[in-house]
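User: I've been trying to design a sequence by hand for this structure and keep getting stuck. Would you show me what you'd pick, starting by listing the structure so we're on the same page?

Assistant: Good idea, let's start from the same input. This is the structure you sent:
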């Protein structure tokens, strides 16, 4: 149930972000925005949020989500649509917006979906002991006498 809630949050916010950037600024159609939202949401959720985020930091997962958003948006807009707008600029602005959202969304994922808490490991009282002897270096004269 937590995954469905997280996917719904991700879908709604991503759709609104893509609608503002691609729909209002670059005049892409509703179907293009909806298709890109579905593809981007599923791919970044599986790769970035479920596979990478539990193993790395928020920063690393956010950078990877930026790269995923940039590449998917660029590829999708360049191949699916035939608009004459600058696809690279649209992809870059979209990826920056997605990365900003993902940095906040990762905190939600760690706390509510992945159930990770602050990792503080109590190692206990470490009392290292060393071997103690009277001499610093061996006295070879005493060794020969014995």
């Amino acid at each position: 149930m937590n995954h469905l809630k997280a996917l719904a949050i991700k879908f709604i916010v991503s759709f609104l972000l893509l609608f503002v950037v691609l729909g209002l600024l670059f005049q892409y159609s509703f179907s293009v925005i909806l298709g890109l939202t579905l593809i981007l949401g599923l791919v970044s959720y599986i790769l970035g949020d479920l596979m990478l985020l539990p193993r790395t930091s928020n920063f690393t997962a956010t950078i990877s989500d930026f790269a995923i958003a940039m590449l998917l948006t660029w590829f999708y807009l360049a191949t699916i649509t035939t608009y004459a707008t600058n696809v690279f600029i649209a992809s870059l602005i979209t990826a920056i917006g997605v990365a900003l959202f993902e940095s906040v969304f990762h905190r939600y994922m760690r706390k509510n979906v992945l159930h990770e808490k602050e990792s503080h490991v109590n190692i206990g009282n470490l009392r290292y002991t060393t071997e103690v002897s009277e001499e610093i270096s061996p006295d070879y004269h005493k060794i020969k006498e014995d």
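That's my pick for every position. To get oriented when you compare it with your attempt: The chain has a mean pLDDT of 85. Residues 87-113 form the longest helix (27 residues).
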